[in-house]
Task: structure prediction
Amino acid sequence: MRDKIVAGNWKMNNTLEEGITLASEIVNMVADELTDDVKMIMCTPYIHLNAVSKIIGGAEKVSLGSQNCNDNLKGAYTGEISVGMLKSVGVEYVILGHSERREYFGESNDFLAKKVNTVLEAGLNPIFCCGETLDIREKGAHYEFVTNQLTESLFHLSADDFKKLVIAYEPIWAIGTGVTASKEQAQEMHEKLRAHIAGKYGTEVAEGISILYGGSCNPKNASDLFAQKDIDGGLIGGASLKSRDFVDIGKSY
Ligand code: PGA
Result:
């Protein structure tokens, strides 16, 4: 069976103090309320990671993620953070290829292929984001565009490495806009992505990969989305900044 995952992407929000409060609330609520087998991941800004790691401690069902890393293992890269540093504070997952990094920081499919290798080399798990703009969808080119993101950034991997990935489909027009993809639109894309993976790595690998949906996912729409056969959870932006909403999304299966 595939892992059910709800990952929160805090983006560039929260002071350290606010982050500590949020993380503590989430860890406590998950312990008290979450009965299903769901992995909740908090992807915090770098400066929160060490403190949040301590708050998570040995908590079941809660893991720590980063929102980025440098593509090199170490060296003279002023201001950057390496995968080894992330690992040393208890990070298990690294978001890669978020559309905001693609757009504002020019991260290309080729460059992301290198980052994926670096994350895997450190023994961490990439949460690899893909997704199309509204313009691409309206032209009817969205399946080709998104499957190509996977091909160019991921299909050089061995099957064993590919199995360590989590994929997140995030249509750019749905991120932070309040417009969610319909459950049918999301399911269709997830099915296409799984078929694309099966074409390269076979059905067993494809059936084992968790594919998350992201884009204005909230406690109201999460259960409909998560009930789709190829949707294994969510990557949550805005709603991950409120402990009640984030944990309620975790309870939406
Ligand atoms: P959103 O962001 O939930 O605020 O739309 C999702 C994301 O960017 O990961």
